[in-house]
Amino acid sequence: MDSATLPSKAILRKKIKQTESDFVTYCSIIMNNKLLLADFNSNGLIVQNMDGTREDRLNLSGKPFLLTVIDKERVGITYPDNNVTTDRIVILNMITKEEEKFGKCTLPPEGIACNNDDIYVLSMDNRLEVMGKEGNIMRTISLPNINRISNLTIENGKFFIAEPMFHKRGSVVPSINCLDLDGKLIWEFNDNDGKFTQPFSMAFDGNGNVYVSDVINHIVVVISPNGKHNRKLLSEVDGMQSPIGVMWDKQSDCLLVCNENGEIFFYDIK
Fold it and tell me: How is residue 253 annotated by DSSP?
């Protein structure tokens, strides 16, 4: 794919707004094509239908930050504010509405993703721990070339790691890294044009294009499947205000963008 065939237009299909939370930290599509929103301030998860009506609200033991769908019944949740003596990751059973114990993390998790039966947890020291469903660590992957991490996604057997601007060891250009499941770099997109400051959430369409939100610059950028081309699709003039979640709705074949304030936009991509 070259830049000429990269998606260039996002056409608004509809917009919905939930009013229960003014600080959503993450959003995912779960079973039966419903939306799951992490309500950080109120220690809960909001289950919402695609038309904006509320399906349910689940109370949690901590402040949820990141989510990953494990299977039809369970969701992994990170609690970054918890200390080492308490659970930083829990598994929530959506049927029983109960939290299941999971392995403890010595460092706050910077990313969590599920691939088949394995749960991948990315820590602040750039270690990727591959864990079983009960939280047992099966192997550890070192990522020495990654300076700092803002999020992790797995798609089609590949890791995608968002790396924000970082100054501790010299200026680092924000980037999106694509790696195989052993941690070997496949490609790297370096944002030399200054679009990104804090790339965060990532989603993928049926052609392999990568959609990335930036919560600081209030934009959504699309990157080609090989990482060589990119284009800004959405910005503040389109209503982007700290877009914390991008998702591709396979059922409706459209891009969903969730703002921190709970606004959710549905876009047809051309």
Answer: T
